[in-house]
Design goal:
globular; about 200 residues; mainly alpha; about 80% helix
């Protein structure tokens, strides 16, 4: 959703401002690699958002809930598969890339970013549901709050752990955002993105 987009832009700006060019380059490439795993979720979401908007307009909450769950489980299955493939391929990538030794510094950035991606996928399109409902104003204020929190976390964590700190800040902010959004969607519509099959995907 919009909040995740805002958080990602804040991260890039702060890494660029507080790090050297090599570190910024490693961060950007590492994030691009990790974001491969979220492509199925983005594709499914783009197709599903107009459908959910129509269901909400018709007050068909049951259909919204079913799609909410299906997006979560389908995206998570594809995301976990891609995450495993990415991690398994990193050694070859670092070996073949001319600056592989430098890019290895972004290994933990990729790992933490993949965890963030999977959390975003598993909690489904909660932000979109809120933004198309009567709670859109609350969703806006939550987005602003999370953006401010992410900026503060970035400032402190980047000084402690460098670019890994930035990805940790994003993990914390995204997890909090999704937790709040999932709770709001449930309190308003009594629907959840989680399915009993989700348990089988946990390590």
């Amino acid at each position: 959703g919009i909040a995740i987009f805002v958080i990602s832009k804040i991260d890039l700006v702060m890494v660029g401002a507080l790090s050297n060019l090599d570190t910024t380059g490693v961060y950007k490439i590492s994030i691009l690699i990790a974001n491969i795993a979220i492509i199925p979720f983005l594709t499914i979401s783009n197709v599903s958002v107009p459908i959910i908007a129509n269901h909400l307009k018709n007050d068909d909450i049951k259909a919204v809930g079913l799609l909410y769950k299906n997006i979560s489980i389908t995206s998570l299955i594809l995301g976990i598969f891609l995450a495993v493939m990415i991690l398994e391929s990193l050694d070859i990538f670092y070996l073949l890339h001319p600056k592989g030794d430098l890019l290895k510094e972004g290994y933990f950035v990729i790992m933490v970013s993949l965890l963030t991606v999977l959390i975003n996928m598993g909690t489904s399109i909660n932000g979109w549901i809120l933004s198309m409902s009567e709670l859109f104003r609350i969703n806006l204020w939550i987005t602003i709050f999370i953006a401010i929190l992410n900026t503060i976390l970035n400032y402190y964590l980047i000084n402690e752990w460098g670019v890994v700190g930035v990805t940790l800040a994003t993990l914390i902010s995204s997890s909090l955002l999704n937790g709040i959004n999932v709770s709001l969607v449930y309190s308003k519509f009594k629907i959840s993105p989680f399915h009993f099959k989700t348990v089988y995907l946990l390590p």
